Amino acid sequence: MSLTPQSAQATPPRSSQSAQSSVPPQSPPAPPSAQSSPSAASFRAARPFPIPINYFSMALGGTAFGLSLRYGASVDLLPAWVGSTMLMLAGTVWTLLMLAFVAKAIWWREEWLADWQDLIRCCFLSMVPVTTILTGISWLPQLPGLSTAMILLGTVAQLLFAMFRVAGLWRGRHTAAATTPIIYLPTVGAGFVSAMGLSAIGLPDYAGLFFGAGLLSWFGLEASILMRLRTGDELPPPMRGVLGIMVAPSFVACAAYLELNGGKVDIFAQSLLGYGLLHSLFSIRLLPWLTEAGFVMSLWGYSFALAAMTGCGLRLMALHPPLAGLGWGMAWFAGILMLALMAATVRLAVQGRFLVRG
Question: Is pTM beyond 0.90 here?
C-alpha cells in the first residue's frame, strides 16, 4: 500500500485555532540552566562538605599558640605584636570554621548528623565549644562582656556534649578501632580548657573542679588507648597525625595547673612536663611512620600539644630559672614546628588540596 502525495504531505493548518486544537498544551521550556545543572539537593548529595569537622584543630592549636605568645609578651620575652597577630589570625580561622559548621548543619544536614553518629568524628565536635572558650580567653582584654559569655557558654556546651559522648561509651557500642587518642577531646581537653577559661574570668574554685575532671579522665583513658595502639591494627597513614593528641594532655594540664596555682613550678608541674617530653620523644621516633602519607591535615593533631609546649617553655624561662634552658629549647622547638604546620597548610591550599573534593 502506497501513500498518495496528498496524504504523504502535511497539510498546513487553516487557522491558529485548528492548529492549537490539534497539539496538546505544553508547559514552557525550562531555561538552559535548569536543564543542564543538577538541583541543589543532588549537588550536595554528590559532593561532600569541603571542610571536615577535624579542621577545627587549626583554631584549637592556633588560638592556644597565640595565647602562649601573648604570655611571652607579658613577661617581656617576646614583642607584643607576635601574639596579637597570631590571635587575630586564629580568631579569623575560628569565625570562618563556625560559619562553615552552621552552613553544614543547614545545607548538608545528613552529613552533619553523620558526624554526631560516627564513633571517631563525633569526638571532634567537642572542639566547637572548646575553641569557643579559647577564643573567648583571647578576646577577654578587648571584649570582656562577650568573652565572658563565650567562656561560660563554651563550658556548659562542652559539659553537655561530654555527657552525650562519654555516656555513649558505656553502653557497649564502642569499638577497639575507635579507641584512638581522639577520645581524649570531650573530657580531657575540654576539662583543662574549661579550667583555663574559668580561671581567666575569676572563678578559680570552679576551674579546679574542671581541672580535676580533665586530669582523672586522662588517667582513666590512657591505658585503654595505649593498649589499642600497641595491640590493634595500625592507624591508616592519613589518620596517624591524631597521635599528636597523645602528647597534648601533659602540656595542657601543666599550663592549666600553672594558671590555677599562680605560676609555681612545683614537683607536680615538673612531672607533667616530664611525661609530655617523653611522649614528644616517642613522636620523634615515629616521625617517618607518621609522615608516610606526606603532609595531611590530621597532623594538626599535634598543634595543641605544640602550642601548650610553647607556653610551658616560656613559663619555665620566666618563672623557674633552674629549668630556663629547657624552657628555651621547648619554646623554640614547638614554635618552629607550629610555623611549619601553618606553612605546610598554606602550601596545601595553594596546590588546591586543602578542601575535600568528591
Answer: no
Report residue 285 as a C-alpha cell. 621516633
Q: What are phi and psi of 85, to 5 degrees?
A: -65, -45
Helices (H), 75-143: 80-107, 109-117, 121-124, 127-139
Virtual CA dihedral for 51, 60, 247, 205, nearest 10 degrees? Answer: -140
Residue 88's pLDDT is what? Answer: 98
Q: What percent of the chain has pLDDT over 90?
A: 81
> Which tens digit of pLDDT belongs to each residue from 139-188?
999 999 999 999 999 999 999 999 987 887 788 888 888 999 999 999 99
Task: Render the burial of 120-147: b for 16+ CB within 10 Å, e for the rest.
Answer: bbbbbbbbbbbbbbbbbbbbbeeeeeeb
**Do 17 and 79 form a contact (C-beta atoms < 8 A)?**
no
DSSP letter (8 states) at residue 232: S
The cell for 200 is 581567666
Q: Which residues contact 169 (CB under 8 A, 6 or more apart)?
A: 183
Q: Which three cell numbers stand for residue 121?
A: 568524628
